[in-house]
Amino acid sequence: MVVADETISLLSKKLGLKLESKDVDVAHRLGKYAPNKNRPVIVKFVRQQTKIDIMQRAKLLKGTGVFINEDLTKINAEVLSSLRLKEPDLVERA
C-alpha cells in the first residue's frame, strides 16, 4: 500500500491529523503513467468522520500544490457547482 502510506504521511504532516494506515480502505492512482507528471489519487476512508475532518482542514493546503476534491459523478458535480454559484452561503460541502 505505497500510495496509501504516502497519502497518509502527506495528509498527517500538512493537516496536523493523526492518520494511520488502518484509516484508509483503498487508495489508488488514476490515469496512465507518464514520466515527470503527477497523477490524481483516489482515497476511500474506513470512517466517514475521517473524510469530514480532512475536508474541513483542506484549506490548510492552499499554496502547496495539493488539492482535495470530492469524487462526484458528472451530474452531481454540475448540481453542486450551480448551487454554489446561486447560493454560495448555503453550501459548505457536498
What are the defining features of this structure?
94 residues; two-stranded antiparallel ribbon; 2 strands
Task: Explain how this protein is built.
This protein is α+β, with helices and mostly antiparallel strands and 94 residues long. The chain has a domain at 2-64. It has helices spanning 2-15, 48-56, 74-86, and strands at residues 24-29, 41-45. A two-stranded antiparallel sheet has the order 1-2.
State the gist of this model:
The chain is an alpha+beta fold and 94 residues long. The chain contains three helices and two strands.
Order of helices and strands, N to C?
HEEHH
Total beta strand runs:
2
What structural category characterises the helix and strand content? alpha+beta
Average of the residue pLDDT scores: 88
Global Rg: 15 Å
Query: Strand portion, in percent?
Result: 5-15%
**Distinct helical segment count:** 3
In whole angstroms, the N-to-C terminal distance is: 28 Å
Q: Characterize the biggest β-sheet.
A: 2 strands, antiparallel
Shape: globular
Helix amount: 25-40%
Oligomer: single chain
Strand order of the largest sheet: 1-2
Poorly predicted tracts of residues: none
Topology:
Blueprint: H1 2-15, E1 24-29, E2 41-45, H2 48-56, H3 74-86
Antiparallel strand pairs: 1-2
